[in-house]
Amino acid sequence: MRNYKMTEKLQELINNGSYMEARNLANKMYEEGEQSETFWILNAEIYRVEGQREAGYACITRGLQKNPYNYELYYMLGEYYKSVNMDQAYLCMEQAEYYCHQSEDVEVIHAAKEEMVQSGRCQVHPVSIVILSYNSKDIMKGCVESIRKTCPLESYELVVVDNASTDGITDWLRGQEDIVLQCNTENMGFAGGCNQGIELSAAANDIMLLNNDTVVPPNAIFWLRMGLYERAQVGAVGPLTNYAGNDQQIVGEFHTREEYLDLATQICMPAPNAYENKVWLVGFAMLIKRAAVDKVGMLDTQYTWGNFEDKDYGMMLTQAGYELLLCYNSFIYHYGSLNMAKDKQKYLNYIKENGEKLKEKWGFDSARYNLADQTVLAQITENKKQPICVLQVGCGWGATLARMKYQYPNARVYGIEEAGLVARFGHYLAEITAGDVAEMQLPYQEEYFDYIVIGEEICTRSDVGAICQKLKKYLKKSGKMIGAEKDKEEKETRSFMTSSEEYREKILNYREKSYEYLKKIDECLKNRTAASITEFLHIFQEKELLEHCLSCIPELSYAHIFSVITVKEIQKRKEISYLLNGNSVRELTEVLKRVEFRIWELEFERTPEAENHLYETMQQYFITPEAMSCIIVVSAMDKCDIYLTVSCIYLEHQGTEAAIDLLVYALEWYPEDERILQVLVSLYKKTGKQELAESYEEKLKCVQQ
Fold this sequence. Notes:
By secondary structure, the chain is an alpha/beta fold. Helix content is 55%, strand content 12%. Strands 3-2-1-4-8-6-9-7 form an eight-stranded mixed β-sheet. It has a five-stranded parallel β-sheet with strand order 13-12-11-14-15, with helices on both faces. The chain has a two-stranded antiparallel sheet with strand order 5-10. One of its GO terms (molecular function) is glycosyltransferase activity.
């Protein structure tokens, strides 16, 4: 009651123009814990009068967190954008009108919209949502209904192209008066069907390609449109999701569609730093500006069935000078590959063929440049607000630098990439210079960079030492060179490989000794007594083995991995589960390779089948979290992502403790990864380990500061 009276008093002071008194009262209410949406509306109004735009924006955000359907807050957001971006201001007013059910206020909002249109400064177009239909009747109907329930009617048209469905969905579609429909008598493929939909769309409309196996949460398309009109150069935008590649998939302890849709309510919010630059976006939900479609044209239909046409189109847009943005404040639920998964072998064959077609079209293997390097990102340890300067040598088209720029909004990021064909695609992801770092004159000030990252390809060059020496003068005295130390260690352990003669001599000298070590290890594994396992671990403490023999025969390198797994298992559970899977290094290696293959399969294509294959293999060979952690480290390309994905697989099979164990190991490699920390906090709370939850929550707060 007291809070209600104070809110009434605050409203009265604002109405009377007593803003100084209102500010004092608002501050007092905040100190006493007032958090209602009405309070945030009134506080935002006071900040508007005081001219504190960003403080007002923060209040609007807090209000929408309380109620994401409050029309007053969208109206205030429109007023906030009016002086800086008329297109975004219009979109906010459109959203306010959609949520408003009070006739007098609707008239005010509508008048504000009309004024913006009449100003000539508003260039917003409605969206033609192009949905490709192929069976999955109920899911298709759910997709359409989710759009109808969450988007202003004036803001979109529905265009559906049915690719010869056989489950009766076409009968339902024909009965929908608000759908522009094309029913094909044969399957035209993804690109062909999408092109038909684009041609059927209203001529001026922006285009949204949307899979039929999606659910659109409230405000998701609104925030995508806000991203599309962030600036004139933006050509396309895409959302986060639960099922996709290209670093667009979120990871966490979510199992059902409803849990993800609840999460979407938290994601679809104003955010001061909402966008990450990308070269391409996954086509399951991609919003494209009409001007970009007119300039670039249609999707390339050479990619049979589906896959790679979205990547190809993104590269076409980027080449044409447009920016593509991943919107971290938009989420669309995706069931994922429902039709393609029905004929997996055919699907995998098409993926291989289409990948080759993309490579032939653009002249390089783009798969090498898709993902941000989480290993590099984990070594950037500054406060997120710090204005750091970073140079990556061998940066590809800048995926890691773009992620860095998103995580560190005040960062200046630069790249050097020898392959000119690749470097040109990163023209807006970072300041990338094309050329050979060893030969070019570098255009940077001395002692300018906080971090210099040496890419993996550079580390394999024979002149890497000279390159690092050349770069040192551009690194601050307090700066860090990432990648070089790892290379230095590898060089030292392979120092004998300076000539074929020395290499041959070294191998011959230690080859016999290496096989002696291998024989001893196999005897230990065969006996599997406490004494023999202790001996096995002692073998890997011998300096001669570590310095000279590991590189002589590959079996010893694998055996070294097994020793690390064994130590971890003994430390955790006082037993050695992994070693029970084989009587020799050869047998254990076969097990490890099977798990490796399943990890690669999962990285190649995120499907339920790939996840099931990995889980079945883990179960078949009793792979512990300790073993899994070591295998991920030596096998996975995106280790952080696979750690998170495997933890989710554990959770789906009621393996909460295993998921926790794996994520704790992941923190050894990625101690400041927000996603890992967030999931651990959630899991510890779920299992009643409040003290641990609070401990990791403190770590998370430190990382986020």
